[in-house]
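From the shared-data thread, chain only:
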Amino acid sequence: MSREIINCAVMFSDVSGSTALYDKFGDTEAKAIIENCVNLMADITTRFNGVVIKTIGDEIMCRFPTAEDGINASCSIQEAVSILTGPDGQPMAVRIGIHAGEAILDNGDVFGDAVNVAARMAGIAKARQIITTEDTYNQLSPELQDMAREFDTTSVKGKAEQITIYDVVWDEEDDVTRMSFTPSQSSADKQITMIFAGETKVLAESDMPVTIGRGANADITINAPLASRIHVKVDYNRGKFVLVDQSTNGTFIKLNDGKEVYLRREELPLSSRGAISLGEKVDESSPRNIAFIVG
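Structure, as tokens:
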């Protein structure tokens, strides 16, 4: 087969926690579990016009003719794997990175920019996530674009500028995990005061939602080194102000009673008072803390 330049979507998907599987079940059983998962991913790839380029241990690399095919396959893989369980009954999970762009096709393998960027997206993705790029997002139908949310920016080797990345929310119910810890709060609470960097904002139910992050498009901008551009959202739901983490590095909250909570793609009702820190533990002396008072 001659070498040619093609436009395609490249996807990397690997089994999350594979090392722990080997530790828990031993080589033979863990290998069988992972092979079952990889074979399932390969079958779904072909259903969506994809080609399996190679499998490497717990990872599969594929290409698709369009971004649409690639994202649809990625969502189908996540849905199928989410109902698989290991011998101990624990659910299986994969993480997926995908990018659509120009690549070199040579003897069935692909090389070049699309491959490098897709591999970078897979490196960012966590278990049960699909991470893609703005270039890929722009090639999707409105229906699939509605499933994606701007996630962060990141650097890619060989590219001078950072690229914008998106998280494809394939399962709305799993987008944000609800914390079982729920502080008491009166439904009469209608205001939340936020104090940060020498400023004070008094926000009402009608002001919600409010976004916080390091990006200029956030409603409240915090210059924190580990913060995402849109790191958290504060919303008002069923009589409570709720903090929703949407970040890469998570959010730390220290409550008035001394309890410390870490959120990553989770939400927490806010009551009384406390401090919020983006991507790093709460340090009471840090100017990057956001103090809040509800009521």
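The CA atoms of residues 50 and 173 lie 28 Å apart.
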